[in-house]
Amino acid sequence: MKQSRLKATLTDPHLWIPLVVLVLGISLLAALA
Amino acid sequence: MSLHAVGVVSGIAAGAWLGSAEAPTKLVTMGFSPFLISLGMVMGVFVARWTIPVALKGTSYVWADLQEKPHLIVWGVVAGMLWAVANTLTVFAIRNVGLSVAFPLWNVNSLIGMFWGWLLFNELRGSGAKQRLIVLGGATAIVIGACLLAYSTTNHDSIAQREAATLGVLAALGAALLWGTMYIPYRKAYISGMNPLSFVTVFTFGELGTVFALATIFDGGVTNVLDSLEQAKPVLFWLFLGGFCWVIGDLFQQYAAKYIGISRGIPLSNTNQLWGLAWGALVFGELAHMADSRALIIGGSLIMIAGAVAISFAEAPADEQRHWRLAMERECARYGLDRERVAAAVMGSDSSRGPRSPRHWWELLIVAAAISVFVWLGVHAERPSIHVDTSWLLVIAAASLALLAGAVAVLWKRTRFA
After folding, report:
1. Distance (Å) from the C-alpha of residue B376 to the closest C-alpha of chain A?
2. ipTM strictly over 0.90?
3. What is the pTM of this model?
């Protein structure tokens, strides 16, 4: 992947929403297991 | 046929096949770990992806699409991870409150997806007051239906059962949040001109990796997981079958998300609640033991479906579609994509290079190997000792196949699976 696209991906504010939700989901699983 | 109609047909077919895919998770009542059940199903999803989907467009096509938009690989993997965690949560939910109840609860994900669609992708912006009223009314109906279903689960006798029901409801709502958020990568990919078949390919790597990691962490290491898989071999076929149905359903869901957006496509595909209810109640006889709650469960489900249908009939007007294009142009500017090619892909034209992608002999081997796995598991399969109403099973399966044929014909004729 081009450097500019990699940077654009990592700095895309939209990306952080699914990442935070993913962490929440794994935490809930840990509590249930 | 309009793209809206293509999206609607895809969404309805998605509902049927996603609903059918959840039925095998009933096996969790047979004593297997929820993580193992989830892993078995996802392994089936992964293998099934290399059967029909690879046969439709070929590996070269998918590879060219991914090379053109490599930044979307990250999004596909994240979406697969979200799906995997959500799916494992649903197994806990089914174990605690049953398929007929858990299913509608996690379908609140359409409401969450709608919010993200509005916030991030300009969906519902520029639409008239009537459109907004229909969508908001539909969304409210979905919430009311979910509340009725949650209330119906509290009708248990002992404190221990109530606690289990509460945890089950929590797991189902957690799955809703994860699945609702998973539609961000979906929409991101499609307003960037990616083909759903390419997205699903990357997606399956993310979900298989995550489910295997979860099973390893929570089920006592790699050796234990492999031993458990060996013990579960007689029922693995049914889980793989669930995975197979899921791949078909998800592909239709992806096409719905591509052509009519998250806000309309996801509620429509969430009619899988109706199919899940049909499988649970008619095939597995679930509601027979919940006579007191039956009216609430059915009433709540019907209200949710009415809400989803109302939303889905609200075709995006020209002004809203102008806002969609603004979101597409934002992605093109951010990631340096070719606006014309992306715009053509969004409108159902094939954006891959060349009129036809070349097929290779080894692609046939991949398809044959994937089918062989299913056949081998089928030979070693044992029928689970769960009551199944064969007549209803045949009726529901026939209806699902009819929808499959109809949706495939529509997608091929209008978009060539673009």
Report:
1. 32
2. yes
3. 0.87
